[in-house]
Amino acid sequence: MQVLVLLVLNLLTCGAVPNRLWGSGWNGTGPGGAAVCGPCEPDLCPESRGCRAGLVPDSCGCCQECGNLEGQACDPGDRNLFYGLCGTGLRCQADPGPAGPGGEDEEEVCVCEDQEPVCGTDGTTYLNMCQFREAAFSEPELRTRGRGPCRTAPVIKVPPQDQVNGSGSSLIFLCEVFAFPMAQVEWKKAGRDVILPGDDPHISVQSRGGPLKFELSSWLQIEGAELSDSGTYHCTAHNNQGSVSAAAVLEVLRAEELSSYLSNSVSEMKQLMDDYDQDLY
To answer: Where is the Ig-like domain (predicted)?
Structure first.
C-alpha cells in the first residue's frame, strides 16, 4: 500500500507527466476542461520528434510539443488551450475555405503567413513557404531555388475523357493544365488543322485560371452533337518551356444505337457485379 501511495504522489508531482497535474478521473483536466498544471520540471519533458512545423509550448507552458500544421484547427493567441498552437511561420485565423468567413461551420485553422510560391531545388513548385518547410523536413538537402514558381513545361493534370453520346446532345471535354509561365491551351480535332472552335457555331471553347494556382482549366463544348462530330479531340498546352498534349475519343450515335449501347453497358455492369458477388463466396 505504501508503494502505491508513493507511485500516485510521484504522478501528481509530474514525475511521469512533467507538465500537468492529472485531475479527477485521470483525464488531465480540471473543472471546465482547463489543464491543471503542476510544478514545471523541464528535465522530465518528453522528447518531441517528427515535428514538421517546429515546436511550440504545451498547454502548461513548461514542455515543448509539435506545432500544428497548415490547415489544422488551432487555438488563437499564444495560449495552448484545446487544439494547440500553430507551428513556425503559421498563424491561427478563420478558415479561408468555402465555409468561412461568416459560415455556420467557420473555425480557426493554421494559415501560412508567407503565401508566395517557392521553387525548390527538386524542381517542385511549393505554393507557400510552409509547404516547402514540410517537404524540407523529410528531405534535409532540399533548398529554395528562388522565389516564385519553378519555370516548367506544361503538365496536364486532368486530361479529357472519352465519351459516347447521342446525336443532338450537348457535351463538354475538360482539360486542366499546370505550367509557369501560364500555358496557352488549344483544341483540335484529328484530321483537321483548324484550331477549334474555328467558324463552327455549335462548338465553343472557354478557359479560365484555376482551380489551383498556376493552373488553367479549358473546356471544349459541343452543342447539338452531330454524327460527323465523332472523332479524336486533342488538348494541347504550350509555353516557352515546352508543350504537352492529351486526346479523347468522341463517339456520337443515333438514338437506336445509343439505346443498344446503354443496354449492353448495363448488362456488362450487372455481369461484373454478379461475378464480384460470387468471388466473395
So the answer is: 154-251
Residue recorded with cell 501560412: 112
Cα(16)–Cα(68) distance, rounded to whole angstroms?
24
CA distance 85 to 63: 13
- Helices (H) then strands (E): counts for the chain: 3, 15
The cell numbers describing 181, all together, are: 509561365
201 pLDDT exceeds 80?
Answer: yes
Tell me, what's the pLDDT at 1? Answer: 46
Which set of grid coordinates corresponds to residue 3? Answer: 508503494
pTM of the model as a whole:
0.60
Looking at domain 153-256, its CATH architecture is Sandwich (2.60)
Count CB-CB contacts under 10 A for residue 141.
7
Do 167 and 253 touch, CB atoms closer than 8 A? Answer: yes
Position 205, amino acid = V
Closest by CA position to 180, among listed 142, 204, 209, 141:
209
Three-state SS at 132: helix
Largest Cα–Cα distance in the chain?
94
* Consecutive H or E run containing 7: helix 2-12
CA distance 214 to 210: 7
Q: What is the pLDDT of residues 65-92, one digit of tens each?
A: 999 999 999 999 888 989 999 999 999 9
Strands 242-253 and 203-209, bridge-based pairing: unpaired
Instruction: Return all residues near 193 (Cβ < 8 A) that are at least 6 apart.
Output: none
Domains of the chain: which residue ranges? 118-150, 153-256
DSSP annotation of 150 reads P
12-26, 54-68, 162-176: least confidently modelled range = 12-26
**Distance in angstroms (rounded) separating the CA atoms of residues 273 and 281:** 13
